[in-house]
Amino acid sequence: MFSGYNNVRIPRSTGTLFSLSRELKTEPGMFIRGKPGISWGDRHVVTLLVAPLRLKAQGQVNRPVTYEGTTFPALTPLSATYRFDSYRLTYRYDFMRRPALRAGLGITAKIRDAAIGVEGGGQSAEKKNTGFVPLVSFRTEWTPTEKFGVLLDGDAAWAPQGRAEDVLLALRYRVGPKVNLKVGYRILEGGADVEEVYNFTLIHYLVAGVVLNP
């Protein structure tokens, strides 16, 4: 995974707006996700997603940065940690069930456990946030042949205070009756604009995985 934009101002009214990806340098990182699930009636699906996320950033900002009540002087060498762990329980109903095309909609209950920490020059500050977010779940899979398929899968929501999108576009290849390989691209984008926190982030993923069917 690698970072697009990652703009932070905490608190919104008194903090400094700065970028963890453009003013600091965020290195690409590895990630792992697990998504077990069950289905019944050929149309009802429940899944549980565990998706930890860590990004590290380093560098200097050419102006003073006030973050969570702490001011780091200009050109102080800074290290920042961006954490956004996601736990999601999803129910989906597949309203379309055809031999080559399957589509469904549902609802996701998401718990986010997030933190952004900054340190440098002998000082440190961290903002933590844990909360619940409801999302709309969607999934479409087209299988034009027995072996190959195209998958669009995601969760998304929008509100005046912020937004969230986590969307995967992938190719699937069947290697056995119960085993599929998956490669594709995922985008994770969103954030919040409230008095306590201003943060909007875009993360790109190159995805490879294995799907096991019971």
Q: Which value, in Å, is the CA radius of gyration?
A: 20 Å
Mean pLDDT: 95
How large a portion of the residues is in β-strands, by DSSP E?
A: over 45%
Q: What's the number of structural domains?
A: 1
Shape descriptor: elongated
Largest sheet: 13 strands, antiparallel
By DSSP (H or I, 4+ residues per run), the number of helices equals 0
The counted number of beta strands is 15
The structure class reads mainly beta
Notes on the structure:
With 214 residues, this protein is an all-beta fold. The chain has one domain (2-212). 0% of the residues lie in helices and 71% in strands. It has no helices and 15 strands. The chain has strands spanning 2-9, 18-19, 25-26, 37-40, 44-51, 54-59, 65-67, 70-72, 78-97, 101-120, 123-142, 148-159, 162-176, 179-193, 198-212. Strand 7 (65-67) and strand 8 (70-72) form a beta hairpin. The chain is elongated and about 60 Å long. The protein starts with a strand and ends with a strand.
List keywords for this structure.
13-stranded antiparallel beta sheet; two-stranded antiparallel ribbon; 15 strands; 214 residues; mainly beta; 0% helix
Structure summarized in a few sentences:
0% of the residues lie in helices and 71% in strands. The protein is built from no helices and 15 strands.
